[in-house]
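ok so i was messing around last nite and threw this chain in just to see what happens. nothing serious, just curious
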Amino acid sequence: MILRAVSKYQKIYGFSSLWAKYVEGFDNTKHCEPCLIGNRCRIVSKDIPTNTDIIIPLKEGEIMYLCGVTYPYVWKNNFHLVVKGKDGASAEAVDFNGVKYQVRDAESVYFDDGPAKANYQHLGYKFFTCRNFQFGVYYFEYLGMGKKAPQMELF
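result:
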């Protein structure tokens, strides 16, 4: 996969962290990054250069979650892009600062908050408003894709 952060600036700003994770499963007893089972991609950080192609290993069908946590923290400005390795495909998303993240050889993976809000209100807003958690619920429980930790069976 090739990632390019297109910006008029030479570096990415406004995030306390920018990370990517190869997602292999989901743990519905946790929220934020810990709910996503898999390994961090050490290539991606808030220090990646802009306007430069960055080659990231991503196999066909493999899932990667890119997340930017804003500083100062503003929930609505956090950045989220989930992609699945697919030769010839492309995806893009724009962060709150106008930086456009373009991805080649991967396609965007859709998710929404419906299943998390419908089934996890009892865990509190830190869970059902967390987009990492929303993705895990949608992809691994609602759609039944991949692996998940066997804690709570809801679907």
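not much to say yet. The radius of gyration is 15 Å.
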